[in-house]
Amino acid sequence: MPASVPEELRRLQAAVVNCRHCPRLVAYRQQVAREKVRRYREETYWGKPLPGFGDPAATLLIVGLAPAAHGGNRTGRMFTGDRSGEFLFRALYAAGFANQPDSSHRGDGLCLRNCYITAAVRCAPPANKPTAAEFQACRPFLVREILLLEHVSVVVTLGRIGFDAFLKAWVEAGRKPPARPPRFSHAAEVTLPGGITLLASYHPSQRNTQTGLLTAAMFSGIFHRVRRLIGRAG
């Protein structure tokens, strides 16, 4: 009997956590976990790759860049324990995709509703900049998620890098590319073959949110648009 989607996702998540493919990323994530920073010196860091998480039957897929060195690499869950995550989970909660507006650690009770969160790269990279080879090495994980998450009708990509990484994984998953090469901009919307909507957003990094490039209203608008798209698809 074939394994169910939740079982397959659990196997994929375990494979992600056990990955040691990229020596530079392995060395960096472990160094950060050993040396820590003063404000977290009493905590035990995760120090491993981060799997995607959320609802296996989700209609919304969110694709970020990579874990933060002292965020996800510390907590063991994407967008948990850093400023980007604070911005993201407030918006998801307001739009009804999360049961609480914040997330500080893996056991804090956060539950995603009709939403699955993943990333282009699963290890915290030095200077937050993965290499092209590291993106390529991680891509099969995203490809597998695209294939397993059968109910997804809307994909939100965070930042230009997440946008480009998703489109490459989409094609590698055997899906047809858009008729015209899409261009990244905030709130850009692309209908992919098969009727899935790709919605782009600026990344909720501190640099973007503190400079006003991405405001709370702009970010909330993305997820309210997702709600309308999901309602229309249903």
Entry keywords:
Uracil-DNA Glycosylase, subunit E; about 40% helix; alpha/beta; single chain
Task: Write up what this structure looks like.
It is a single chain. With 234 residues, the protein is of the alpha/beta class. It has one domain (5-233): Uracil-DNA glycosylase-like domain (Uracil-DNA Glycosylase, subunit E, 3-Layer(aba) Sandwich), CATH 3.40.470. 41% of the residues lie in helices and 11% in strands. It has helices at residues 5-17, 23-35, 72-75, 83-94, 132-148, 159-172, 206-210, 216-233, and strands at 53-54, 60-64, 115-119, 154-158, 189-191, 197-201. It has a six-stranded mixed beta sheet with strand order 1-3-2-4-6-5.
Tally of structural domains: 1
Fill in the CATH topology.
Answer: Uracil-DNA Glycosylase, subunit E
- Poorly predicted runs are none
Mean pLDDT: 95
Note the run of SSEs as H and E: HHEEHHEHEHEEHH
CATH class: Alpha Beta
Q: Termini, distance in Å?
A: 30 Å
Number of strands: 6
> Order of strands side by side in the largest beta sheet?
1-3-2-4-6-5
The gyration radius over C-alpha positions equals 17 Å
Number of helices: 8
Shape call: globular
Strand content: 5-15%
The structural class is alpha/beta
Q: Please name the CATH architecture.
A: 3-Layer(aba) Sandwich
Q: Main beta sheet: strand number and arrangement?
A: 6 strands, mixed
| Share of helix, binned | 40-55%
CATH superfamily: Uracil-DNA glycosylase-like domain
